[in-house]
Amino acid sequence: MSSVTPPTRTPVLMSQITPDDVVILIIEETEPGTNNFIDKLTKPEEGAERISFNTEKVCEYECYYAGQRFIFVVTPRLLQGAVFRTIAKWLEDAYRRSIELTGVIHIHSITNNSVSAEDVQSVKLLCHLCGNNAADRVRLVTTTCDQVEGFDVNNVEAISEITDWRLFIGAGARPERFDDTSEEAWKIVEGLENTKKALLLQEELVDREMRLEDTTVGKHIRPERWGILSRLTWLLGY
Fold it and tell me: For the chain, first and last CA: distance in Å?
């Protein structure tokens, strides 16, 4: 694959996103200080700060690549209740504006030689968020760390042994490895091609008019993850 120069990204508002754009949700389950997937896909404007994931905010960026306008919607960990509520609200608003996703890229960093209970829970939430109908839009991307003592590359695939994930793969989701290069990042994005679909959560919130906590994924968020403030603000509609 030829060398890729990352295009410049600029912040964009929801109101500026159109149904014709290639819209991709990137969920970064990475450790603080690591190189983010979005920073290999794109580069910030001159003088702009690097994206921080110590926030509950959903960040939207536009860039142009190969003649196409891409919108990358970047979020931190799904397991944080307040963050999950923010992601859900963004997805609901987008769907109401007839904006469907081309892909969901879930970034999971392998920083040790095992898969934790939190890793398992995060993958389960991803499956329930997207649903089987949109499974082919999902990529579970693992980043490896060659410096981890006793690291076994075969264990990168261990997460695919989770029952929910194996069923999700059967429905069309795909695991990918990311080697921390712009070429590989764009290869993963281009592999999604041009198909767009609504996620299960979007259909439940909009078409079925369900409360977030009654949705398939909402039922799998443990109560302590929501937090009192997050729960109250959702119930009050803020």
Answer: 47
Helix H, strand E, coil C: the string for 98-120 is: CCCECEEEEEEECCCCCCCHHHH
Please give the distance of CA 171 from its chain centroid, rounded to a whole number: 18
- Tokens for 75, please give them: 């979020």
Indicate the length of the chain as a whole number: 238
Coil, helix or strand for 63? Answer: strand
Note the pTM of the prediction, 2 decimals. 0.84
* Tokens found for residue 224: 């302590």
- 1 pLDDT above the threshold of 60: no
What does the block give as tokens for 121? 């829970």
Name the pLDDT band for 45 (thresholds 50, 70, 90): confident
* Amino acid at position 212, single letter: L
Q: Within a 10 A sphere around the Cβ of 98, how many other Cβ atoms?
A: 9
Question: Residue with structure tokens 């329930």?
Answer: 128
